[in-house]
Design brief:
Length: 586
């Protein structure tokens, strides 16, 4: 009997334990469901009304009450600032800035600090001036191994102060390449004020209350950052960074994250939990996602959400992109996250998934055509450039110059510029350091004269010529050759090897005199040429002025023979000559 009672008691206790376990699991599931429903309800309240923001070439949807700042825009090396300002105040500031630059002495203590003050007025009603000032020159000699080389560095400050409809835009760069000063007036001509921050319907790059019309290319390095905060949850902060034309990082986000975690101490790793770490594609952009929970020293639980696209170096539509959402951000240090983990995840997923390329942005990407526009083609201001190359301004000559040069390199798809003509200086102009200018009322006409990427100059010393293998001959490849793309641009070769393709090859020795030279397919690539510093071979006046060494060569552009071959004076090639592989240099 006693044993029977003990068995019944044991079964009863076991049954109660099982019931308790089942009740605990049920309660846990109910609590989890309630938590999930609560998180969903909380995020629904936060995202019930959304607004779309244009950042660079991308769109993102954020809660309607988000406080947004578009910061640090930069294009072509120019820092850009946008702010509200009345026209009267702008004109006063513009006049004060011009007087300030005139009064400042130049590098030698003279009065030519302000080299030009160019008035601008665009089709978008943007008015103001572009100032070129503060030219800085440093030169001397320096030792490099056994060689003594002479150097000369020159830079100049360029800035634009422009205004339209209560909005001022300042653009500036210090120590800028003097040969690229025309970049700023061109950029100003592409500026479109957008005070209401509407989503543009034409391709371009959005900044705060304005945008720049395309074309903009990857080598112009467009950059911008966006910061956003939620007044209802001040500890939550969003950040979006876009940067085009950058070389992709050697390590991806997940690789950097793993390396950073490995460097932490055991105690620090115990305070860190990885919730997600995997590739993630958003709107067709392949990226990586890393989500972590951290416990701060004050026991505040904070979340870090990170999505990154490593980007490309030559495509503005696939820039280096970083999007982050951080919680627990306090003025005096970390604070507990104001929403649950489920709510934070749901908010992150909804906002990050809204990132997409602005549809109109793709319209600005011109397609490469196999047949180029012929030399001698004319185009007029405000028209789209039909072919990348050097264009001659037909409005200049007889002592009248053009800002940026009579011959200018214009990329295909860019708007042909209205030339700012530089009139001959009077004696009084020279004494005051001013350059008179004017803009014709009729549209500037331009003539395509060359396909080259830059002006060709003769070498300082004779360069080593490419030689021909015995019994071989070289025929110049024409631009319409079907084989001109069979050797990819960027391919490498070296001294003594047959040239794989006719075109422009860059010497990879940075101190060589060769630069970029044209070689015919089949010719043997030459050694690089270097100057010899005086005194290296003693005091003899008959010592060599140059030496030659083996070098690597990189294909920059597949092209027909340079202008020197069969040149008719206008950049056209005459006939289909077979030519020796001479030392043409660009």
């Amino acid at each position: 009997m006693k044993r029977l009672l003990q068995n019944r008691l044991a079964h009863l206790l076991a049954g109660l334990a099982c019931a308790g376990l089942i009740m605990t699991l049920a309660v846990g599931n109910v609590l989890h469901d309630d938590s999930a429903r609560g998180a969903h309800s909380e995020v629904a309240r936060m995202t019930g009304k959304m607004k779309t923001v244009c950042v660079g070439r991308f769109l993102i949807d954020l809660p309607a009450d988000a406080q947004i700042e578009l910061a640090r825009p930069n294009i072509h090396g120019f820092d850009i600032a946008v702010f509200s300002e009345e026209e009267v105040a702008f004109q006063a500031r513009l006049a004060h800035r011009e007087a300030e630059l005139k009064a400042k002495p130049d590098q030698s203590g003279g009065t030519r600090n302000l080299e030009s003050a160019i008035e601008v007025r665009t089709e978008s009603s943007v008015v103001g001036k572009v100032f070129v000032h503060n030219r800085m020159v440093s030169e001397g000699t320096r030792a490099r191994a056994l060689e003594i080389e002479r150097y000369r560095n020159e830079g100049i400050s360029v800035e634009a102060l422009v205004h339209a409809g209560g909005l001022s835009v300042d653009m500036a760069a210090e120590y800028y390449d003097p040969e690229k000063v025309a970049n700023l007036p061109q950029l100003v001509s592409q500026l479109v004020p957008n005070p209401e921050s509407h989503i543009p319907r034409e391709p371009g790059f959005c900044i705060d209350r304005a945008y720049f019309r395309d074309p903009l290319t990857a080598d112009q390095g467009e950059q911008i950052m966006m910061f956003a905060r939620l007044p209802s949850h001040p500890d939550i902060e969003f950040m979006l960074i876009l940067a085009a034309g950058q070389k992709p990082d050697e390590e991806t986000l997940l690789q950097r994250g793993a390396a950073a975690e490995a460097s932490l101490s055991l105690l620090e790793r115990m305070r860190l939990s990885t919730l997600r770490a995997a590739p993630r594609v958003i709107a067709g952009l392949p990226g990586e996602e890393l989500v972590r929970l951290g416990v701060e020293e004050n026991d505040a639980h904070v979340y870090s959400f990170w999505w990154e696209v490593n980007g490309t170096e030559d495509n503005v539509l696939i820039p280096h992109l970083v999007f982050q959402m951080n919680t627990g951000q306090g003025k005096d240090g970390p604070v507990p996250t104001s929403i649950s983990e489920d709510a934070a995840m749901a908010l992150w997923d909804q906002v990050s998934a809204s990132i997409r390329l602005r549809p109109a942005a793709q319209d600005g990407v011109s397609q490469v055509e196999t047949q180029p526009v012929p030399i001698g083609t004319y185009a007029w201001a405000d028209e789209r450039c039909p072919e990348s190359g050097w264009w001659l301004c037909c409005d200049s000559g007889n002592g009248i110059g053009v800002l940026g040069g009579q011959r200018q390199y214009i990329r295909k798809g860019e708007r042909m510029p209205q030339a700012l003509l530089l009139l001959p200086q009077t004696l009084w102009d020279k004494m005051r350091g001013l350059q008179p200018s004017m803009e014709s009322k009729s549209r500037t006409s331009w003539k395509l004269v060359d396909y080259r990427a830059r002006k060709r100059t003769p070498a300082e010393l004779p360069l080593a010529t490419a030689s021909m293998p015995a019994g071989a001959s070289v025929t110049v490849a024409r631009r319409d050759s079907a084989d001109r793309t069979r050797v990819p641009v960027g391919s490498y070769s070296s001294t003594g090897l047959p040239c794989p393709a006719s075109g422009w090859w860059r010497c990879e020795e940075s101190h060589a005199l060769d630069g970029t030279r044209w070689f015919a397919e089949g010719s043997l690539l030459p050694p690089a040429t270097f100057t010899v510093a005086q005194g290296v071979f003693g005091r003899s006046s008959n010592g060599p002025k140059a030496i030659q060494r083996r070098s690597a060569w990189r294909l920059m552009r597949v092209a027909e023979a340079p202008q020197a071959v069969g040149d008719d004076g206008s950049g056209n090639l005459t006939g289909s000559q077979s030519v020796p592989p001479s030392a043409y240099k660009s």
